[in-house]
Amino acid sequence: MSDGTDRPAVSVVVPTYNCGAHLDPLVASLSRQGLPPGGYEVIFADDGSTDGTPQRLDELAAADPHVRVLRLPHSGWPSRPRNQGLEQARGEYVFFADDDDWFGDEALARLHSCARAHDADIVVGRMIGHRRGVPRELFRENRFDATLANAPLADSMTCHKLFRRSFLDRHGLRFPEGHPRRLEDHRLMAAAYLLAERICVLADHPCYHHARREDAGNVTATRMDPAEYYAALRAAMDIVDAHRPPAAARLRLHRRWLRKEMLNRLRGQALLSAPEPWAGQVADEVGQLVKERVAPEAIAGVPPMYQVIAHLAAQGRMADLRRLAEWDVSVRAHAAVDRWQVEGRTLTVAVSAHLRAGDEPLRFDDRGLPVLPVAGAAPDGVVMRAGGARTDVVIRRRETREEFFLPVDATTEPAADGRVCHRSTATVDFAALDGGRTRGTWEVRARVIQAGWALDANLPLVVRCAADGGPPRVEDPRRLRARIRRAVRRIRDRALGRTARAGSRSHDRPAAARR
């Protein structure tokens, strides 16, 4: 997996800063990448660590000729270390990893093989989240000619991907240094997505485990300054405008930033748990951006709840945003298993689900807008539809948190009183799931998507597979409870029967004998 010279197939560039033992999972995963000796190199670009990290890196480099260490003055952000690592990289392809994340087994070999087979400039590997979200929709299936227009690439704006080195060099793609520092990967990825000739998504194998440290010690985990953050977002939007992409690509990126970087910060628990002065600054910045930079067609293309929040932010209605957030946190997905069966290695599950606000089913008006607790929240002249409402069935391996969307037959059943019920039937073949690598314990979930919510509900099924590709064994607590109830009744009935027989025998004995 090299070009016949001393050049490795893949260079892994890792910025480090005071990472300590959090580096261990990444280091351990590097030996399981399926690449031959000399097929990869790792460049740790240390951003002036003050703990034992430099010594640890030196030890790794002394023990492994594929490891190199760059010592850099402290910059306080990953951009400069990544750029310096890229300058030193010799690989045909480059992967940017973080020091507290790690690779799935054989990930680099599979990513490189995909890039070579499809002549790709970028390969996005399936991500597994640990205490942080990952773009689930993007990884429904493999995509070997993905674009911003035909795939949800905009959902994945981090740099944890495989890039052709010559592609980055040809277009001068580097991480922005200096200020504003935030969203540095968004600015690089926006340009990269627009310039790439071919992008692939490798969804059928877990490639990258993306983690948020329990001590919240990731370099970029500090609370952002609203003015700096949204200046960085404006810079990312400037990049898109400068490239003059087709309207579909531009709208995909703008809608992604509208939902994730602006409006999600003003809804639900994210708003309620934020300090009020800071949240007010965010609302002010978002309101200005919505009015100045977000086109009406971009707003019209997001789900109803996001349109409502954008409208309230643009009008500066902070009190109504808080009132809406207090109600929003009460919305939950409720789901039930209507039936399930196993035939050989195939499991079929039928699910019904709906959204509830507190103790009541969520109700929708004839526009598909949820009935809201805030008067005048919906902007005038905007037709809102609940298009795309559905319930997915997701199966997750308990041991590794890998999850897979199952193919479903789905229907939506609106009721006269505004309630909406979703019904989905999913089928999964355990001989084929994850390429037959199915040994372990699997949890089943329903994911209800409607009007701007995407909420999970656990289902009372646990599936155990004793061997890869083997038949699934389903544990259904409802059936277990029913068996327990039947067993209790049998024990009770036997006990009552013995008591009755004993009493009958006692009454049958002669009086003299009873004495």
UniProtKB/TrEMBL annotation:
Residues in TarS/TarP linker domain copies: 226-325
Residue ranges, annotated region (Disordered): 495-515
Pfam families per record: Glycos_transf_2, TarS_linker
Domain of life: Bacteria
Listed name of the protein: Glycosyltransferase family 2 protein
Species per Swiss-Prot/TrEMBL record: Micromonospora chalcea
Sequence ranges assigned to domain Glycosyltransferase 2-like in this UniProt record: 11-141
InterPro entries registered for this protein in UniProt: Glyco_trans_2-like (IPR001173), Nucleotide-diphossugar_trans (IPR029044), TarS/TarP_linker (IPR054028)
Bias type Basic and acidic residues, positions: 505-515
